[in-house]
Design a protein that fits this description.
There is one protein chain. This protein is mainly alpha-helical. The protein folds into two domains: 210 residues, Rhomboid-like fold; 192 residues, Serine Threonine Protein Phosphatase 5, Tetratricopeptide repeat, CATH 1.25.40. The chain has 19 helices and five strands. The strands form two sheets. A three-stranded antiparallel beta sheet has the order 1-4-5. It has a two-stranded antiparallel sheet with strand order 2-3. Helix 4 packs across helix 5 and helix 16 packs antiparallel against helix 17. The radius of gyration is 30 Å and the shape is elongated. The termini are far apart.
Length: 412
């Protein structure tokens, strides 16, 4: 993999969650390499585990994916795996991702073995090792699923090999970057350079990965996500209506995507469509709450209130859930405001008085703000309350007033 002189170091494709499978694969490869070093390089054992064209078996084909001939071989593959793996894993899921990785590696090794038997049968007993075929398969999947993404490269390898090029950075579209890698591998294959490298496995892995991507139906998913990427880029350039069109187009197919709904809400606020922005914020918060994602729902609620004003409020059930969510997250100030907003916005509901009471209690106990608490208690006492609740409010107001008197005496 390190013959691609511009080394990829990152991508703008968003990774959702922690890429546990990718981390596990990297650790397994590093552990296998470390075990080889610790064992002093047991040649017989390594040869037995290695995949060979003369004796192709599934166990050796899979074991070979975790064996490397040297540190640079391992480093190059792990860099590529770390760049391309997480984004693909987060879109395929752990199981499909691992199946695709192992299948691409296995088939790439078979392709390399077939090429050896066809053109250089005298090398049939030479081991074929390394994760290059599997990693190339991820690149093929990336080209199908995330063709619109951008890749970041540095020229570290050129500097190390020749010492004539200064380190430089460049960003390329994924298809261009992967296409250049594919072209360069083909040039090496045809020229006979780097004969020790399993270039057929590289090329075969990429083709198998692309084929799997087509079979799994990743192209329509890619087109849909491309709309989000275009929307983000339009937003960066200040082309608000074009960005909004992309997000709204995406939401036609995925109407319950909370992040896209929140982005659309922000854009609608920018173009002064506050009513529609509020609707989109509410839909985003409802979608997050349905998923059990309390923190992003609460954050979106605060953003909605900040952008659209304190009059912006959720439907009753969601408003209470967000208020409780703030308490669960240890954010009492936001919890108090959310309870208060419920009590003021839905005064006819039975829970309105209890919500205001909870807001006052948070102000008094958690925020040490007895003045604000007394104000809310006074408002509650002006309402028609059940006798037991009214008595509770009066008692707590008395406690609050005594606290205020102590504060005044201390200040004097």
């Amino acid at each position: 993999m390190y013959y691609f002189y511009w080394l990829p170091v990152g991508t703008d494709a968003r990774v959702r969650g922690t890429p546990l499978a990718t981390l596990g694969l990297v650790l397994l490869n590093v552990a296998a390499f470390g075990a080889i070093l610790v064992s002093g390089g047991n040649v017989e054992a390594l040869y037995a585990m290695s995949f060979k064209a003369a004796d192709p078996t599934i166990p050796t084909a899979l074991a070979s994916l975790f064996l490397h001939t040297g540190f640079l071989h391992l480093l190059g593959n792990m860099v590529f795996l770390s760049v391309f793996g997480p984004a693909i894993e987060s879109r395929l899921g752990t199981v499909r991702y691992l199946v695709a990785y192992l299948a691409c590696g296995w088939l790439a090794n078979l392709a390399q073995a077939a090429a050896i038997l066809a053109f250089t049968p005298e090398l049939a007993a030479v081991p074929i090792v390394g994760a290059s075929g599997a990693v190339s398969g991820l690149m093929g999947l990336f080209a199908v699923r995330l063709y619109f993404a951008r890749l970041r490269f540095v020229s570290v390898t050129v500097l190390f090999l020749h010492g004539t090029v200064r380190p430089a950075r460049v960003t390329l579209p994924a298809l261009v970057g992967i296409g250049l890698w594919f072209l360069l591998s083909g040039v090496f294959l045809l020229s006979g350079a780097a004969s020790e490298t399993a270039l057929v496995a590289h090329l075969g892995g990429a083709l198998f990965g692309a084929f799997f991507g087509l079979v799994m139906g990743l192209v329509p998913e890619g087109r849909l996500e491309h709309r989000l990427a275009r929307g983000a880029r339009y937003s960066e350039r200040g082309e608000w209506y074009a960005a909004l069109g992309e997000y709204e187009g995406y939401l036609v197919a995925r109407p319950r995507d909370p992040e896209a709904l929140a982005h659309a809400a922000r854009l609608l606020r920018v173009v002064h469509q506050d009513g529609k922005a509020g609707d989109r914020f509410i839909e985003a918060i409802q979608a997050w709450l349905k998923r059990g994602a309390i923190e992003p729902a609460c954050d979106a609620y605060e953003e909605m209130r900040r952008l659209l004003g304190l009059s912006a409020v959720l439907p009753p059930v969601e408003q209470l859930r967000v208020a409780r969510g703030f308490e669960e997250l240890g954010r009492p100030s936001e919890a108090s405001r959310a309870y208060e907003a419920y009590g003021r916005s839905y005064p006819e509901r039975h829970a309105a008085s209890l919500a205001l009471l909870r807001s006052a209690d948070i102000e008094r106990r958690a925020l040490n703000n007895p003045g604000r608490a007394r104000y809310i208690y006074d408002e509650l006492l002006r309402r028609e309350l059940p006798a037991d609740i009214a008595e509770m409010v009066r008692e707590r107001k008395q406690v609050t007033e005594r606290a205020l008197e102590r504060l005044h005496r201390g200040a004097a």
